[in-house]
Amino acid sequence: MSPATDTVTAKTTTSGSTELASAPSPGVSPPHARRVPGTPARARRVVRRLRDPLVSGATRSAAIVALLLLWETAPRLGLVDRTFLPPFSEVARAWWELAADGSLADNARASLVRSFSGFGLAVAVAVPLGLLIGWYRPVADFLGPLLEVFRNTAALALLPVFVLLLGIGETSKISIVLYACTWPILLNTISAVRGVDPTLLKLAKSMDLSAPRLFQKVILPSAVPVVFTGIRLAGAVSILVLVAAEMIGAKAGLGYLINASQYNFAIPQMYAGIVTISAIGVAFNQLLVAVERRLSS
Q: Structure pTM?
């Protein structure tokens, strides 16, 4: 075979290889082609995204719906006296009437101002004091007996004392809320500081961290979940104690609304006030949970 023939054969072979390499195999998409998901797959994903929140919401609200249905049907079937437990529809109607004439908003505003004032003061006082007592043993030894005496004294038992010393105005109501909210926050903060992992403390001290940096980098991040448990407990206590305080010598507030409705035998209005307190408590707890997640992150 001549050199020219060898050259032509090589070119032909090379060209054929190139063509075979560039030609796509049957059933295989080209590398640059994008696979577009089919319409059924997209529809399944959309249905799944819509279904999961609906199923979760239905599961969470099933118990509440069952309670409301029981509340509505039990008085109508004569299982309970509807004079003292009216159907939920009557309570809802009374709630709407109170909301329409503005009395519900006025009473709720008065209660929220008192409750949030006492709660905020309790957080501002109890968290630093709990950090101090939990970290410094001499302070704990000095204040320990006094704390044991007051932590076992119910807030409502001291309500007459607050009224006698501070009067029946706003000061006594905010003070009783402050007193009741202090203990859950204080005790949980002390427990959180004392429960920090000793290994982390030894490691931080070996790095020659100053006391402020030690609090910032080790103690506070470890203590946040337990501290917020106490804060959430105090949030519930702030509303419950305030309602009891507003039943004595108050002229506005949800506790006053419940008490006045009871005396006037306006039972649906009384239950409307109770439902409002429950709704405020749930909303306040969810707000604290959101803040806890934000700070814990």
A: 0.72
